[in-house]
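Re-run with default settings, no changes from the original entry. Doing this only to confirm the output is reproducible before filing.
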Amino acid sequence: MAKREGKRAITKKNIRIISLLLLAVAFVITYFSVLTAATPKHYDVKVGETSAYTIYATHSVTDESATEALRDAARAAAQTAYRIDTERIQACMDGAAAFFAELAALRAEADGLRPAAEDWAALLSAEQKASFCAGTQPNLEEAQLCAVLAAGASEIQLMKDLVLPKLETSLGAGLSQEGLSAVKATCVREVNATTSLTAGLKDVAALAINTYMEATLVVDEEATKQAQEEAAAAVAPVTIKKGETIVERGMELTAAQYAILSDLSLVRAEQSNQPLVFG
C-alpha cells in the first residue's frame, strides 16, 4: 500500500515537472516567434546597383529627399522682397545738385568773357570749350555748353526746378531696373514739352535726368530669405506609409531610396573582412 502511494506521488511530481518544461518550451517558442516577426528582413542592396527585391515599408516613414525637394521648390517660388535704397536716392540727389552747382560755377567763370552778341561758339577757343565742358559731371557737349552760357539765370533756375523734383519723386517711388528706361523717357518727354526752355537747355536737363536717375528698388535679402524659409516650413512632409513600395525589383537603387531603407533598418550591415586580433 505504501509502495503504491509512493509511486503515485512520484508520478504526480513528474507530471508537474513535465508540465513546467512544456510551458517553458512553449514560452521560448513564442518569444522567438514574436522576435522573428518583429525583426525586419535585411536586404543586401547598394546605391546604383539593381535591386534583386521588391521592398515595402515596414512602417510609416518620412521621405526626406522628396520632402526637401518640395521645400526647395517652395523656396524658389517664394516672392522676392524689395526695399527702396535710401542711400542710393541721396547719392543721386546729391550728384544732381552738384551738377547744377557746377553749371553755376561755370557760368560765373565765363561771365567775364561774355560777348555782346552772345556768340559763345565763336568766342571760346577749342581749349576753353574743352575745359568748360569737362568742368561738370557729367561732361557737357559743346552745344550744351553754349546753351548754358547763353541762358539767363531765370532759365537755368527753371531748368533746375524742373529736373530736381522729377528726380526726387521718381527715385523715392522705387525704381526697378526693368522700369528705369521707361521712367527716364517719360521725364525727358515732360521736359521737352515745356515752352520755357531752349532746345539746348532741354538737352542739358535730359543729360541730368539720364545720369542721375538710377534704379532704387533693390532686393531685400533678409526679408526674401525669411519668406523663403516660411514657404519651406509650410510644406507637409512626404510620408511613405506601411506596406507601400520603396523600390521595385529590377530597379536601380537611388541614394534617396537607400536612405529610406536605412531609416527602416532594412539594409544588411556590411561585414568587416579584417581578422580579429586577440590578446
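Residues 149 and 191 are 19 Å apart (CA to CA). The chain is about 60% helix and 5% strand.
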